[in-house]
Structures are given as C-alpha cells and as structure tokens.
Amino acid sequence: SSFWARAIGATYGCEIRPEPPGNAERLVARDPEFWDALSETLLPEVEGIEFTAADDVRVTAGAAHSMLGRTEWWIRAFTGKVMNVMRLIKAAGTFSNGLDYLAWKIERHSGQRVETTERMRRHPRLAAWGLLFRLWRSGAFR
Asked: At 49, is the secondary structure helix, strand, or coil?
C-alpha cells in the first residue's frame, strides 16, 4: 500500500543512517499481502484513518493537527541529518583513512564522487567541514 511506503519513507527521512530513494517502495512491494494484512489489523483501530475506494489509506486530520504533525516530522528529519553529519565528521578524524570513509559514504548516498587530497588527510576534521559545505552547496544532501 502506498500508505506504508509513505510512512516508511517518512521514517527513513529521519534516520541517522538514511536509505536511498525508493527503498520504502521496494520494501513494501516485496510482500504486499503482509502490508495489506497489517493495514486491516491495525489501522481500523486508529482514529483519523479511513480506507479509500482504491483500498488505500487516508489520514484525516484537522488543519492544526496536520500542521503540528508536519512540524514534528520536519524537526525529526532535521535532527537526524545533523546527527548524521556529526557522526561522519567524528569518523573522519577518528579512524585511520577516516576521510576516505567519509568520501565513500557521501558518494554511496549522494552519487557525487569526492576526491580526497593529502592536505585533507592531514587535517581530516577541518577538511570534513569544508567538504560538507561544498557538497551541501552543490545539492548532494537530500
């Protein structure tokens, strides 16, 4: 169900270790019967949930409740991203070849190749901040 893909996708957006785009949809598509059974078992008990004609789920919340929910999800996502950045910067200076690890993680999650220099390796924590800023400006972070 697209409800579960949206719900799982929202939680992925808040994680310290983010998942690639489309992962939630692939997870739900692997076993749609499980997610349909979960919907039938759990969701009728939840206030503000209704089933649509297309056998999907719709959340019916008032404007204030909806705004509060979006704000809370934004805070969770922002906090998760900040924690992820801090974890990567810590790793850049803690492990041997930490900057190479940081470059590999960035390329794995953003698709942008990062070339590390000898100067960056000598000062990995300082280099990590500049590297993260450049990548942020180029749109590498979701």
From this structure: strand
Instruction: Return the closest-CA partner of residue 3 out of 68, 54, 73, 74.
Output: 54
pLDDT digits (tens, 9 = 90+) for 74-116: 999 899 888 887 887 787 777 777 778 777 877 777 777 888 8
Q: Which residues contact 105 (CB under 8 A, 6 or more apart)?
A: 88
Distance of CA 1 to the CA centre of its chain: 20
Cα–chain center distance at 50: 27
113: nearest Cα among 92, 94, 140, 137: 140
Alpha carbon of residue 109 to chain centroid: 10
Helices (H), the chain: 2-12, 23-30, 32-42, 63-94, 98-110, 118-122, 124-137
Q: Could you tell me which residues are beta bridge partners of residue 50?
A: 58
